[in-house]
TrEMBL record:
Topology in the lipid bilayer: Multi-pass membrane protein
Family: Belongs to the binding-protein-dependent transport system permease family.
Every ABC transmembrane type-1 domain range: 93-284
Pfam families: BPD_transp_1 (PF00528)
UniProt cross-references to InterPro entries, sorted A to Z: BP-dep_ABC_trans_perm (IPR050901), MetI-like (IPR000515), MetI-like_sf (IPR035906)
TM stretches of this protein: 37-58, 97-119, 131-149, 161-184, 205-230, 263-284
Identification of the protein by name: Carbohydrate ABC transporter membrane protein 2, CUT1 family
Amino acid sequence: MTAALAEQGTRPAPAATPPPAARGRRRRGLDRGVPRWQIYLPLCLYLLFTLVPFYWMLLFALRPAGSTALVPWPITGEHFQKVWNERSFGIFFQNSMIVGVASLVMTTAVALAGGYALARFDFRIKKGFMLALLASQFIPGALMLVPLFEIFKNLQMINSLGSVVIAETVFQLPLSIILISGFIKNVPVSLEEQAWVDGCGRFRAFCAVVLPLLRPGLIAVGSFAFVHSWNHFLFALMFLSSQDKQTIPVGLNTLIGADSVDLGALAAGGVIAAVPVVIVFAFIQKWLITGFSAGAVKG
């Protein structure tokens, strides 16, 4: 018993945990070096600079024609009804959705295959291929309009949504392949090797082990592909000639006349075009914060 008491006496005393009030004072002491107004003022200015154009667009879209009030009251939906029914924005919205979803699927599928090849295989021209992918990002899309137009003309794809989908996919693939390759490199090869030992082939192991871990990365790449296709103006303007094949960016351009501009209809069309983009980016943020490889390897 004497030895036990001696041993207990030699043990270090446990560190005292500071009370919550002390921890709060310590945290405030760390922030005391920077005044709060130096943090909040730039954030408020940036928020004001970002939101004022959106408020101005909503103001013209929701207030009655001829009104000059700074508050949209009474709220009216006449501008939305006009652009949706009279200006064929229902058709434009449908065409843009087809182009966006098709570009999303094609870009994600091809980028997944190319990214896996770059991440898992070594071949002689790998570095040169990566350099070519990076260099292609410096080529403006406008420089390729004439060659693409001639190609689609020979393929009889002019005035077809397929031409816009192919053009959008081709121009989004380099960056998408690089991003997907980076995601796959962060997945340990040992996970696939364990699946191979259990009898899975390479494709089955990829679908069962790697693909679920790539979900946030695939969603991010696909979402960016969708947003880019949704907002792109140049390809739809060049390759689509009839009105029933136009997309929303080209439809917004038709609301701008030579002598006058219907600001209410133009603002309503801008709101219609912005809603899917806002929803997609809200969805992207959730997956980017989560982290695609959390919990992939457990002891």
